[in-house]
Specification:
Helix content is 29%, strand content 21%. The protein has 478 residues and is of the alpha+beta class. Helix 7 crosses helix 8 and helix 8 packs across helix 9.
């Protein structure tokens, strides 16, 4: 439904059931008396205020479309556009907006208003659906009166094996309120079926995943990153390895939406991380067609294929954030996607020098996937207690990575097939070379976790380089 225009001049929105609206009646009459063009919209009683010929807005169409959250609200409109707004009663604000001095001389200088009827919980949802429902383009699915809505979603194959929130029109509309992007804006083309994914489709799956509207911009950025040739989501699905998209969030939005960066950062209990990661997976499943047993051919899979999203502890880190290290400006909200498996804990509770600790890290990292194989990336999530060792020694991010890489230059003779009595390994022609476990930019360093032990975590990756997956960073846009 189109937004109803406002007449030029002054526009007041009031309701009888508001003491402040009753209080300002003489002020409204005064504005008429001095020749100001004034239109009054009333939310609950067309006869109020008396003598001002109020316009009936009991349907709340004007109030809803123009974002009236408090009454009285006084607007100044020029050429059909709002140019100024005063909320409640404040003599100074009203005089500045109207250009009339001496308003309400017997009234208190300030009096807060009351809640608009258009934002009352029992009305807001119905108004949202009534005035915005037409912008949704997705197919409606009618359920029988005796059909259980949760079981019906299982029956239709729209879940990831856990119950999902039914995506009703009103829930989807609320979710769309989390972004300024249009519902029909195409976010990406989702593999494996190469289906255009609109903001609306992402919002539907975000509802199903249990997201709040303020999480939607993060989900949108994750979808954009996942559906690039760079990340190669199709390959991540099709590989028999147990990898899925790992979402690492940087920037102020982490705190704004309540993401956990401390204790149990990679585990359960934090709604934003769990639902954002789940929403991405549901988009790939429900829109892109990437389902287990179909294109998704993982031999074992892993819990990260359900949801894997966490935020970096930038504030407590001894180094610049992962996003800054990847060339993103400090303070910018962004996601980095990494094709990763489950986590593996590094236990080192005795190292007190950075040299000893990076040696522990390197020894653990060498075993990634297989000690005799190379060609995989990894994320190293350094816990606060381990990070303190580097901070106290003055080692920056570059020094830590340099020292780890130096310890992972491995004689090819130890890596080739048959070495150590193990048939797995690199081809024999590498036997005379020194092989790096990781490419120079193949190890991502992230600071996160609780100060509850001298532990860090490894997230092993999938095949790197051509034919594999590259870590992919995208800005989060509202």
């Amino acid at each position: 439904m189109p937004k109803p225009p406002l007449p030029d001049g002054l526009v007041a929105v009031v309701k009888r059931d508001c003491p402040t609206c009753a209080l300002v009646q003489p002020v409204l009459r005064r504005l008429r008396e001095v020749g100001r063009a004034l239109t009054v919209f009333t939310q609950d009683d067309p006869s109020f205020p008396a003598g001002l010929d109020a316009v009936d807005d009991t349907a709340l169409e004007v109030s809803w479309h123009h974002g009236i959250e408090t009454v009285p609200t006084l607007l100044r409109v020029e050429r059909g556009a709002e140019v100024a707004r005063a909320i409640g009663w404040n003599r100074q604000d009203w005089e500045g907006l109207t250009g009339v001095s001496g308003l309400g001389p017997t009234l208190p200088a300030h009096r807060p208003g009351c809640g608009s009827l258009s934002v009352e919980p029992d009305k807001a949802s119905a108004l949202e659906l009534r005035f915005s429902g037409g912008k949704l383009r997705s197919r409606r699915v009618e359920l029988a009166s005796l059909e259980d809505e949760f079981e019906s979603l299982f029956d239709r194959g729209w879940t990831d094996g856990l119950p999902v929130v039914p995506p009703t029109e009103i829930r989807v509309l609320r979710m769309l309120g989390g972004t300024a992007r249009a519902p029909d804006d195409v976010v990406a083309v989702a593999p494996p079926d190469l289906v255009p994914v609109t903001v609306e489709k992402v919002a539907i799956n975000a509802v199903m995943a249990g997201c709040k509207p303020e999480y939607l911009p993060v989900v949108l950025a994750a979808v954009e990153a996942a559906c690039t040739d760079e990340f190669n989501m199709h390959g991540v699905l099709a590989t028999t390895m147990p990898v899925g998209p790992v979402i690492i969030v940087n920037g102020p939005i982490r705190r704004a939406i309540g993401m956990n960066t401390g204790i149990n950062v990679l585990g359960q209990g934090s709604r934003p991380g769990l639902t954002i990661g789940r929403a991405l997976q549901l988009v790939i499943r429900n829109v892109g067609g990437g389902r287990p047993g179909g294109v998704d051919r993982a031999t074992h899979g892993g819990p990260g294929k359900l949801s894997f999203c966490f935020a970096e502890d930038e504030e407590g880190s001894p180094w610049e954030s992962l996003s800054v290290a990847r060339g993103v400006a400090a303070g910018m909200n962004c996601v980095t996607l990494f094709a990763g498996e489950g986590t593996r804990c590094i236990v080192d509770q005795r190292s007190r020098t950075p040299e000893s600790l990076v040696s522990s890290f390197a020894l653990n990292l060498r075993a990634l996937h297989h000690p005799k194989l190379i060609g995989f990336d990894a994320v190293l999530v350094v816990g606060p207690d381990h990070a303190r060792v580097f901070r106290d020694a003055g080692w920056n991010r570059a020094r830590v990575l340099e020292e780890i890489h130096a310890r992972l230059q491995i004689p090819g003779a130890e890596m080739v097939r048959g070495a150590g009595g193990i048939e797995e390994g690199m081809p024999g022609h590498f036997g005379s070379q020194t092989l790096p476990k990781f490419r120079s930019d193949g190890l991502l360093l992230v600071h996160a976790g609780g100060s509850a032990g001298l532990f860090s975590e490894i997230i092993g990756g999938w095949q790197s380089g051509p034919g594999g997956s590259e870590p992919t960073t995208r800005e989060i846009r509202r």
